[in-house]
Amino acid sequence: MISSKILNNTIPLCFLPDGRLVCYHYGSVLLMRDEIVQAVLSLPVGLKERMAGRGRILTRLLRFGVRAAIALDNEHLIISIGNLLYELDLHQGVLSPGWNCGEGIRPLVFSMVKDVTGLDDGVYFGGYLKNNNKKPVSIYHHIDVDNWDVIYTFPEGAINHIHTIVPDKFRNCLWLLTGDFGDAAAIWKVTDGFRKVERVAFGDQKWRGCVAFALPEGLLYATDTPFADNHIYLLKDDKTVESISAISGSCIYGCQWKDRFVFSSTVEADGRDETPWKLLTSKKRGKGIKDDYVRMYVGNLADGFEEVYKVKKDWLPFAFQFGVFKFPIGTNSSNTLYCQPVATSANDMKLIGMTFNI
User: Fold this and answer.
1) C-alpha span between 31 and 248 (Å, rounded)
2) Given CB 3.0 to 4.6 Å as the disulfide criterion, which of 129, 143, 252, 312 pairs with 147?
3) Contact indicator for 223, 201 with CB cutoff of 8 Å
């Protein structure tokens, strides 16, 4: 493995269809190709971020920056800042006024749906929020600039939040991965324009996931549980699941890189008895987190998965974020795998590029 440090305090967000990498860096959106910055677009960030956002520790504590993004085309992005969604015109450098998701609601990740029979094309996201009381949670569909439609709402008592929406052209459905506890940790199957939303797998932490890919063989996903063993699984026919590989911790982030899939393990707390004070002070790992290392696994069904990189979680408590690797979403057909280690003892908050002989 060969790695290169590209930029400090830089979040890889997404790829444009033409292959350019979009990143967030100190209040600006960067457009990059082959690790070279081609354009810089400033965002109207608040005074607090302008003053403190260059410090990586405060950035982690206060959750500064763009949290999620997706390319509509080569000239337009949707970006998530706080609980507001904006559209950014990359050609003109113009940011829309924004659309408010609602108090405490944001997307963990956006999903692009295209050519799935029975479902409208476009960008979707599910409400991601702290929701211990299981209030209703909605799924949103992008209509136009700052215009989103509620396409479906889970009733009260069903789930805590939505992790991701996965389009599946092989089975003409959407997969919804929801969390976090009890029957809320589930995999749902959506068909017929959301007229049928079926909970197909639930009742065990092996159905709790954040990262998944639809393949001809089934749904490939990694579990996201800090208090049980974690695996990369293949869901074959709604309820039949096969363990492909054990992993060392919960998986929140991953990506597709050429013909391979990337999953990263997390160093985090248990999560079931989380108070503000415990979050501020705790450094105790959950039972499902095997050690203090964040790990990256790369592979596919034909060749299997192998650990290709690891780095130790730093000494700060979990209020300063979990130990993770973050990746840009979208198609990465380049020879370089981009990621940002967070809360790690090496390369913390840096954009790094990796190449492997695998």
Assistant:
1) 34
2) 143
3) no
Q: What is the DSSP string of 98-129?
A: -EE--TT-B-S--EEE-S-TTS--EEEEE-B-
Phi, psi of 342 (to 5 degrees): -130, 135
Q: How far apart are CA 196 and CA 212, in angstroms?
A: 21
User: What is the CA 124 to chain-centroid distance, rounded?
Assistant: 14
CA atoms within 13 A on the CB side of 310: 15
Backbone dihedral region of 203: left (phi > 0), alpha (psi from -120 to 50 degrees) or beta?
Answer: left
CATH number of the structural domain spanning residue 96: 2.130.10.10
Six-digit token string for 320: 């300063």
Q: What is the pTM of this model?
A: 0.95
HEC secondary structure over 288-333: CCCCCEEEEEEEECCCEEEEEEEEEECCCCHHHCCEEEECCECCEC
199, 225, 223, 228: which is closest to 211 by C-alpha? 223
**For residue 279, what pLDDT is reported?**
65
Structure token digits, residue 114 = 């295209």
* Tokens linked to 274: 């989380």
Task: Note whether 129 and 161 are within 8 A (CB).
Answer: yes
Q: Provide the domain count of the chain.
A: 1
Over the stretch 294-307, which tens digit does the pLDDT of each residue have? Answer: 999 999 999 999 99
Cβ neighbours of residue 118 closer than 8 Å, sequence gap 6 or more: 172, 191, 192, 193
d(CA 128, CA 179): 9
Q: pLDDT tens-digit profile of 209-239?
A: 999 999 999 999 999 999 999 999 999 987 7
Q: Which structural domain, as residue segments, surrounds residue 173?
A: 2-355
Q: Report the C-alpha dihedral over residues 163, 167, 173, 176, rounded to 10 degrees.
A: 0
CA angle 110, 299, 308 (to 5 degrees): 100
3-state SS, residue 171: coil
- How many C-beta neighbours within 10 Å does residue 215 have? 14
